[in-house]
Design goal:
single chain; 314 residues; alpha/beta; 11 helices; 10 strands; 44% helix
């Protein structure tokens, strides 16, 4: 009887949920890959649940500010967070102390999408392939700069893994989000960047940036002409980006499950498939348990990578 009584509050909450707008925290400024994805998903989810989804951009510290805010939000399902490999796997590996616990402080809801990162350079860089970029970097060590969305961000970590794999000396320039990083890359203030597909691919297709490779195991459907970094001369290189929705850690299971069901409906919508394809994303889905298992495995994986490579949050 006690178990039934304890379960009732969560079950009752799920029956009336959602009764008001939801806040979706995005830990980066507007216009970047995270933001583009969040707004596409939020717009469709709002139609399905009949409530507004308010995208709340909280950039800074490579995504840590937004993640901390989400972790400390009321666990009622009305605040959800766009999590990614950067704030739930890379940051724990890089920082001895975080303002949140990536496992304890979040309740996984579902994996939204996966995608490769895309390695791009400003057209002024005298390298038209990954091999040429590596040769240029080795000929002029410490002179080429790469931009990231902040220390500990996914863009930072992917570039550091690339440096390790190619034994090159590239200089890190950290920005408060991918949009200012991309802006300076386009202006030639920095030369190199591992970008997210949603934000970076349009610049490549417009001829404003040169794509040298993608970080996945296979070529991206949205850019089949761009080789993988592994096939372009760095055997075994693979870093796959992912995005998902999590809620604060003590959100009732019944509410989490309802959010999961509504998000799976969102991902199944035909317009979402078209939107994801255009952004170089592949829709995922799955249960809260499956997403939680992925998060734990990625934390363990990149903790080993960071330790082996002695990568530090500068």
């Amino acid at each position: 009887m006690l178990a039934v009584a304890l379960a009732l509050p969560g079950a009752a909450a799920a029956q009336v949920f959602p009764a008001k707008p939801l806040r979706l925290i995005v830990p980066f400024p507007p216009g970047g890959g995270n933001d583009i994805l969040a707004r596409a998903v939020g717009q469709r989810l709002a139609q399905i649940i009949g409530q507004q989804i308010i995208v709340d951009n909280r950039g800074g510290a490579g995504g840590l500010i937004g993640a901390e805010l989400a972790a400390k939000a009321a666990p009622d399902g009305y605040t959800i967070f766009l999590a990614s490999i950067g704030n739930l796997a890379f940051s724990p590996a890089l920082h001895a102390k975080l303002p949140y616990d990536p496992v304890r402080d979040f309740a996984p809801v579902t994996l939204l999408a996966t995608s490769a990162f895309i390695l791009v350079v400003n057209p002024s860089v005298a390298a038209k392939s990954v091999k040429e970029l590596v040769a240029l970097a080795k000929a002029k060590p410490g002179t080429l700069n790469y931009a990231s969305a902040g220390q500990g961000s996914s863009l930072h970590m992917t570039a550091e893994i690339f440096k390790l794999a190619t034994a090159t000396d590239l200089v890190h320039v950290a920005y408060k989000g991918s949009v200012p990083a991309l802006t300076d890359l386009l202006a030639g203030q920095v030369q190199i960047m591992f970008g997210t597909m949603p934000a970076t691919l349009p610049q490549v297709k417009a001829g404003k940036l040169r794509a040298l490779g993608v970080s996945g195991r296979q070529r991206a459907a949205a850019a089949p002409e761009v080789p993988t970094i592994a096939e372009a001369g760095v055997p075994g290189f693979e870093v796959l980006n992912w995005y998902g929705i999590v809620a604060p850690g003590k959100t009732p299971e019944a509410v989490v499950n309802k959010l999961n069901r509504e998000l799976l409906k969102t991902l199944a919508a035909a317009e979402m498939a078209e939107s994801f394809s255009a952004q170089g994303l592949e829709a995922a889905g799955g249960t809260p348990g499956q997403f939680g298992a992925l998060i734990k495995s990625e934390i363990a994986k990149y903790a080993k990578v960071v330790k082996a490579a002695n990568i530090r949050a500068e």
